[in-house]
Amino acid sequence: MFPRPLPSPNALTAPYWEAALNGELELPRCETCAAFHFYPRTTCPHCGSQNLAWHAVSGRGEVYSFTVVHRAPSKGFEALVPYVVAVVALEEGPHLMTRLIGVAPEAVRIGLKVKVEFKKQDEQTRLPVFRALA
Ligand SMILES: [Zn+2]
Fold first, then answer.
1. Is 55 among the domain residues?
2. pLDDT tens for residues 17-36?
3. If you measure from the C-alpha of residue 90 to the centroid of ligand 1, how many angstroms do you get, rounded to a whole number?
4. Overall domain count for the chain
5. What is the pTM of this model?
């Protein structure tokens, strides 16, 4: 079996991957204006505050945009094609790119309701993916 690339957590992103390993989706939230943001960064994109903390979110959202991958980008992805790469708009506001599961590629629609799940990649890594809700 060919490997797929794994994340390389750094000081800014480690909390995200540690939460995922524990089956939680956590995002950075500004403690000054209370807005969530994603990707992680050192400064709130809404108000400029550097008073940020990680908080669990619902893991629920809807498909904002998507594409269907038919040609594997490397050998590690060959068993997955065709698969759906989507931008999910979380209930808390931020968008994140992910893979959709539990739905045929031809059935995916903008606005489809989804919920996060975590796929074990190795002992240190669980990747957030989103399952389509009926
Ligand atoms: Zn802020």
1. yes
2. 999 999 999 999 999 999 99
3. 18
4. 1
5. 0.94
